[in-house]
Amino acid sequence: MSFLVVAGFIAAAREIGAVEAALAFAGGFIVVALLLVGISSITARARERRAARRRKSEARALAGAAAFAMLPTLLASRKAGLALVVPAVAALAWAVMRENMPPTDGADNSPD
């Protein structure tokens, strides 16, 4: 690759002069460097979003596993059994309310 760049520089230097060819190649290299920096920042943001989604998913899985592990302890007494029913009913009510609310961003949130 470097051989082609040097050959191109020599050809340009013969056609337009050494200083002008050097300035043209410098400008070209700056444009290539700016493109590479832009592409790098775009891919870094995409990697960051994927990592955030993965962390969120892992946190949900961990919370679910912890809740499932605590279930026998909570069911050991009648008072604790009631402590499970209230949040379950609240979660069900929230899901029904969310299902029946019109979307605010124009997206269709229906399950079908």
TrEMBL record:
TM stretches of this protein: 28-46, 81-97
Superkingdom, taxonomy of origin: Bacteria
Keywords: Membrane, Transmembrane, Transmembrane helix
Key word Transmembrane present: yes
Protein name: Integral membrane protein
Species this protein is from: Neoaquamicrobium sediminum
